[in-house]
Amino acid sequence: MLKKIKYFIRKVFFFILYRDKKIFYGNHYNSLNFGHLFFWNLIRPGRSLTRIKYNRFLFPKKIKKDDNNIYIDTKNLSKNEIIEIAAKKLKKYGTVVLNQYFNEETLSKFENEYKNYFNTLSYQPNSNEDTGTIPLSKTLADLWFDEAIIGIIEKYIKRLPVARNYPSIKSVTPEYTETEDNYITSKAPFANQWHIDHATLIQPAIYFTNVDEKSSHMQVILGSHTYPNVSNAGDLSSEYVIKNNLSIGKCVGKRGSVQFHCGNAFHRFNAVKNSTRSWLKFEFCSGNNVLLDPKQIGRMLKNDFNLSSLDDRSRKIISSLFPLPLKKGYEVKKEVFEPTKFKGI
Fold first, then answer.
1. CB 236 within 8 A of CB 266
2. Region 50-69 average pLDDT
3. CA count, 13 A, side-chain hemisphere, 309
């Protein structure tokens, strides 16, 4: 009986709130409308409560259509200046791009060391490839824990970020081109719909290909990260974005650029036929939904990298993925590991 009542209430609300079938259809019932968001947060409050818990809840702010300055030319800026400017843009827009932050020497060194992993990528049309977890080395650590990358995230989330997942190299080569107002909705091997990620995710990506507006790139609805978004209503339709004149940021930059986006911002992959986008992917969060996996630990340490060689700050960041050794060890309580507290064990 209770299920029938819930189903009836849901049907009534959907009829009242989602009448325009030109913008609400299929799996596209999401929006930035406060009535819609209030309804979903009332029945599914977990995401917003998580954002409040980790001090990630912001006051909604719509960005003007012509306000899309998400780029930073880093050449003549100090590390502190980059961190300060980028953190402000990330807070305002939900995304930011550091143009050509890493030089060619750094990129080539990484490519040479991980050439066997790059060689597994076929770059064939309609491919969405991932090398899987790559082994840890000083070269990778220098990128993963780069002072500016960590500093930007730390200033934005007001705490030292937590490594959420293990690094990997990704590459996408679409077999078709999508237009601004006509997105293909079926069986795309990449995230081509306007969607959100988990509640406190911050994701940096280092470009290993040139990315411009005429090539495959990521797009972000600027300012959407400030809303109490939920994923239960599905994706945003491109028709909704156009009708509401939302500001779209195009994440582009030369090889060596670093793109950041907040997981609460609506974003999508913009496909251009036979245009390859390759990047090194990192994931950080505020402390929740960490993807600890013993198998991936083994993959990362296959070359016997010494974790103790990392500085204390970096070691603390990845303690979520590589637990710290403790003098008294851990206790297992209902599948949860907690530091042993009692003496005399």
1. yes
2. 92
3. 10
Amino acid at 323: P
pLDDT of residue 182: 56
Cα dist from 55 to 44, 52, 59, 215, 304, whole Å: 19, 5, 12, 36, 37
What gap in Å lies between CA 98 and CA 105, rounded to an integer?
Answer: 17
Average pLDDT, the chain: 92
Cα–Cα distance for residue pair 216/212, rounded to 1 Å: 8
**pLDDT over 70 percentage in the chain:** 95
The answer for 196, left when phi > 0, alpha when psi is -120 to 50, beta otherwise, is beta
DSSP at 129: E
Asked if residue 269 lies in contact with residue 190, where contact means CB atoms within 8 angstroms, the answer is yes
What region, left, alpha or beta, does residue 324 occupy, with left being phi > 0 and alpha being psi -120 to 50 degrees? beta
Q: How many other CB atoms sit within 10 Å of the CB of residue 210?
A: 14
Alpha helices in the chain (DSSP H): 2-17, 34-43, 46-53, 79-93, 104-113, 115-118, 138-144, 147-157, 238-243, 294-300, 312-317
Do residues 332 and 339 lie in contact, with contact meaning Cβ atoms separated by under 8 Å?
Answer: no
Q: Which structure tokens are listed for 300?
A: 């990362």
Q: How far apart are CA 240 and CA 243, in angstroms?
A: 5
Entry pTM: 0.92
Q: What domains lie within the chain, and their CATH numbers?
A: 2-285 (2.60.120.620)
pLDDT tens-digit map of 83-106:
999 999 999 999 999 999 999 999
